[in-house]
Write a structure and sequence with these properties.
mainly alpha; Rossmann fold; globular; two-stranded parallel ribbon; 222 residues; three-stranded parallel beta sheet
């Protein structure tokens, strides 16, 4: 079971799962985000990775708001990124919710392994990307599911957790992934280009530059 957002990280995590011999079921969430361009990328990536099934769920977190990605709050641009500060692009409890949905579907289809492409080194300060959160969710899954209490616990894989963005770009290249098929931008521009100035774009560009690789995504002004 792979949480597939359409971004480079989840694309790479899915490719790692496939490389390691797993058959894939992929899950994407339409959660009221402003950057729904990523969902089209997720569909294409699921097909490319030969997923047994790709499920897209509707869960409108914009009704809760509290984030620049789900409400009328400007997406920060060209800011100094400080990973010790939680930015306004943080969506309250997003990974907790998404992992719970993945867990529910995994239990139904009999999947024991859940993959998520979180990264705790070069990231925007989101608390639900940290190793301690992933470990605690795995324990929650053990305690709160039929499979877990009957002695068949789930494994939550976060294969990119201790990689830098440059490491992830290199791993994607090693796996022969086309970066241009993924989408990371928080604020897509007219004409289908990434803005190049939001936190996500800047972290991605920094990673490719440090890895000495070319990002095939088209950026505004590029």
């Amino acid at each position: 079971m792979v949480l597939l957002s359409g971004g480079l990280d989840s694309y790479t995590a899915a490719a790692i799962a496939r490389r390691d011999g797993f058959s894939l079921y992929t899950l994407s969430i339409r959660y009221g985000q402003r950057h729904v361009r990523e969902l089209a990328a997720a569909r294409a990536l699921a097909e490319l990775r030969d997923a047994g099934r790709h499920l897209e769920l509707d869960l409108d977190l914009s009704q809760i708001g509290g984030s620049a990605l789900t409400s009328d709050i400007p997406v920060p641009k060209d800011r100094a990124i400080d990973s010790t500060q939680i930015p306004v692009t943080y969506v309250p409890a997003r990974n907790t919710i998404f992992l719970s949905l993945a867990l529910a579907w995994a239990e139904v289809i009999g999947a024991d392994d859940i993959f998520i492409g979180v990264n705790a080194l070069d990231y925007s300060g989101y608390p639900d990307c940290r190793p301690e959160f992933i470990a605690s969710f795995a324990e929650t899954a053990r305690l709160g599911t039929r499979e877990g209490v009957e002695g068949r616990p789930f494994t939550v894989h976060a294969p990119l957790q201790h990689m830098t963005k440059a490491d992830i770009a290199r791993e994607a290249a090693r796996l022969e992934l086309d970066s241009g098929l993924s989408w990371s931008c928080y604020d897509p521009q007219p004409g289908g280009r990434a803005c190049g100035t939001c936190d996500s774009c800047r972290l991605r560009q920094k990673g490719f530059a440090e890895a000495g690789l070319t990002d095939r995504v088209a950026y505004a002004g590029g």
